[in-house]
Each structure stands twice: as structure tokens, then as C-alpha cells.
């Protein structure tokens, strides 16, 4: 009787192990790298198709993503946002560490395939501290220009500062980063 139970258990374990090996071979994890950065969630490869984590890809590409439950459809929008930094009438991209300057951000937005309700521009210092330059409600679509008011800022440490441009589709949505520009503060 013990031999029979052991044989049945061995048979069940063999079938289960074979099934798990087949399932592992049928669905393989895939490393996903976007613009040189590896995503936290891996993609899956099965039956000649690759399935990717669309929310992480959209976030990495600084794009909007929307889900239509009734149509079972995912839509990704990636507007073009070109930012220019002006100190008086001079465009700049690098500054000297310790300088306190007054500047404004100009942004040209096109290929916007959805309406937006608000925009925000911020600056992030090399330590990761973010400060809002300007935020306001807008009613825009397709393409438009956006200019911040003059903003005074001290580039207190050497390193890379990031100017970020955010949008909201609806007032109740979270801010979605759509573009960024880097300013380098160099020691004199």
C-alpha cells in the first residue's frame, strides 16, 4: 500500500514538474530597456509575441496613456515639447555655480492629440529637490506656446539641474511629466 501511494505521488510530482518546465519554456521574461534605462517590470515573450508593461514604457518616454475600458483599448500620446531658457534675451543652457539669475522658460508644444487642462514647469536641483516655477490652468489642444513669468533662482551647487514640463488632461488627473531639459551648473 505504501509503495502504491509513493508511486502515485511520484507520478503526480513528475506531471506537475513537467508542466511547470513547459510553462516556463512557453513564457519567457524579457529585459526591457528604453533610452538606456532598464524597466523594473520585465516583458513577456510567448508564442512569438512580446508583451510589454505599457505604463512603464509610457512613463519612460514621457507620454500620456489612457485606457478605454469599453473598447479594451490603450492609447499613448507623445506630444512634442521643446523648451528654451532665456535670461533677458539670451538663450542659456549652462550656468556658473552660485549664480542667482532671473530667467523664463519658453515651451513650444505640438503634436498634442488630446486636450490639456493645466501645465506646470519646475526645476529640480542635483539633490532632487523640486521647486515649481509656474503652474496654471489652460484650455489647449493641437499646438501652442507657453511662457513662464520671470523666475529668480540660485544655482547653489555644481551639477545637473532639470527643468521639467508637466501637463494634466483633466483637472482631477495627476501631473504627467512630458519633457525635460538639463542645465549644468559648473564651478568657476
Automatic annotation (TrEMBL):
Keywords: Signal. The keyword Signal applies. InterPro entries: Cu_amine_oxidase-like_N, Mao_N_sf. Residues 34-113 form the Copper amine oxidase-like N-terminal domain. The keyword Signal applies. It comes from the Bacteria. Coiled coil: none annotated. SUPFAM superfamilies: Copper amine oxidase, domain N. Residues 1-25 form the signal peptide. This is Copper amine oxidase-like N-terminal domain-containing protein. It comes from Paenibacillus plantiphilus. The lineage of its organism: Bacteria, Bacillati, Bacillota, Bacilli, Bacillales.
